[in-house]
Amino acid sequence: MDMNELFFRHQMALMAVGRMRGASARHADFDLPGHYADRIDAYRVRRGMSKYFAVAARPEAAPTIGA
After folding, report:
1. Distance from C-alpha of 12 to C-alpha of 33, rounded to nearest angstrom
2. Are the C-beta atoms of residues 40 and 7 closer than 8 Å to each other?
3. 14: closest CA among 31, 41, 33?
4. Alpha helices, H only, the chain
5. What's the Cα-to-Cα distance from 35 to each of 9, 38, 43, 51, 64, rounded to whole Å?
6. In 3D, which of 39, 34, 55 has the Cα closest to residue 4?
7. C-alpha distances in angstroms, 9 versus 31, 56, 57, 61?
8. Sign of the dihedral through C-alpha 38, 15, 11, 53
9. Are 39 and 5 in contact (CB under 8 A)?
């Protein structure tokens, strides 16, 4: 599974947890969003990637669209 699919499944799992109500929420004993978060972290470690995406240090260093 590549990083995009892991991100997609993590987001879908987060949305599903938000919709759980009543008995569904009480009986959910598996943390699916946490499972995908762990897999994303493991993917990054295996490939020597940083945990977060790089961001521009200064706003003026970011590319300007339409300039």
Report:
1. 8
2. yes
3. 33
4. 3-19, 22-27, 32-46
5. 10, 5, 12, 16, 37
6. 39
7. 13, 28, 30, 33
8. negative
9. no
Cα–Cα distance for residue pair 10/16, rounded to 1 Å: 10
Tokens, residue 61:
């260093």
CA 27 – CA 57 distance, rounded (Å): 45
Q: Please provide residue 51's backbone torsions phi and psi, each rounded to the nearest 5 degrees.
A: -70, -35
Q: What is the pLDDT along the chain (67 residues), one digit of tens a residue?
A: 888 999 999 999 988 887 776 665 555 667 888 999 999 999 999 998 887 766 555 656 556 666 5
CA distances from 50 to 6, 35, 55 (A): 16, 19, 12
